[in-house]
Amino acid sequence: MKKLFSLLAAVLFTGSMSATMYNAVKVTSVQDGHLYIIERDGKALIDSVKNYIIYASDNYTKVALQGNERYVWLFEGNATEGFTITNNYRLTADPTIDHNQLSNQSSSANVTLANYGGGDSWWVTFTDDVALISLAVTDGRFIGEQSPGVGGYKAYASSNLGSNGHDFTIYELQEATGAYLATNVSTVDFGNVRIGDEIDPKTVKVLFGGLTGSVTYSGLTAPLSATGTIENDGDEITINIEPTVSGNINQTLVISSATDGVNASVTIKATVLEPVDPSAAFALYTGDLVEGDYVIYSDGVAMNTTVTSDRLQFTEVTPVNDAIEGPTEDLIWHIAPAGAYWTIFSAAENKYAASTGVKNKAQLLASGTDDKSLWTATKNGNGFDFTNKANTTAAVNAVLRKNQGYGFACYAATTGGALSLYKKGNGGTTALDEAAAAHKAIKRIENGQIIIIRDGKRFNAIGARIE
Fold first, then answer.
1. Do both 262 and 307 map to the same domain?
2. In this structure, are 162 and 289 located in the same domain?
3. Could you give the percent of the chain with pLDDT greater than 90?
4. Among 104, 185, 258, 283, which has the minimal tally of Cβ within 10 Å of its Cβ?
């Protein structure tokens, strides 16, 4: 492992602004054709909509803006008829994305991004320096938080004004003057990383204007380090991490110009985990299906044994280097052949994943021989399709799929996507060697030592090549 240094670098500012820059200033009214940031509880609304929920992020800044950031919105209209609210990143930086305009367009709480010109008009009503954003109709729905700590916003009926947070602070983008210094992100989060992993670096873009002195940056210590030459607006600092000890990392990268009296900072975070123990790990499996214990995964979640509204529910999981370590018993399914079919068995419940014989539903059954408990298994890319025998006979939706937030059940093949399987490993077997060749990295134990296999090569836990 190469020696780590905390970095303090100073370079002369020689570049100039490449485009107009903006600072965000708090306002108590909005105007046609102006750009704004919509903030609440330290997070700004961004162009991320999932399951009809629009989300906010704390990864934003209010200085040295280019106007095309994901959290910048264009307001068009007037105070009487309301304003359309268009994501300016989607409108300008990536115009190939058609869906960009905030919309409700229904009697439900769903929030969407409609095509430009197809969104709704919204009133922006200020009280005590904060704004209520509501549909421009009498008693219109308002943009409100789902619930504290849950994150995300929907369009709630006006009767919910007392229960769903809606007090937004609005910042207008105004052309920057004088010296300023900022970054394109306020937080860099490596997430969960493991000792011995080869971890991709992160970058921080430095934005500035009007500087007369030098720029310095400092503050990081092992296992973090920073490199990069900052000479022109938009140059990047590269952040590397090479952890050797488990635990939480929270450091601050400080970028400053002492001569001009301006600075910016970025929080660097990571959660360092111990190397994967193969006896507790489930590795991504893409070979022909064989009997074994698996985690059934799709779109950030794993199928669990809870049945709600005739659907098997799910738990959020985050695979690291194509492995899930130590899943709880309710996420482990034993998949085994049953003649021409397969069964999906939970030892935690002593029951089988099954259909109900009706489309878009699922259940747990005590019998593994009932047609509702039998599935055909077909490779689909790097995933698998499980098709239910009983539902196929009944000519109704029969493919085990995850459908957005509803859960796992027998849906049409066009719903969701193929399921990924993570198979329990048994260190030192040929199966792990084959998986190592097919995937980015696999960890296993040999003679009490952690071995990392990547692209067919073998390394020890600190990254040294083993011949």
1. no
2. no
3. 63
4. 258
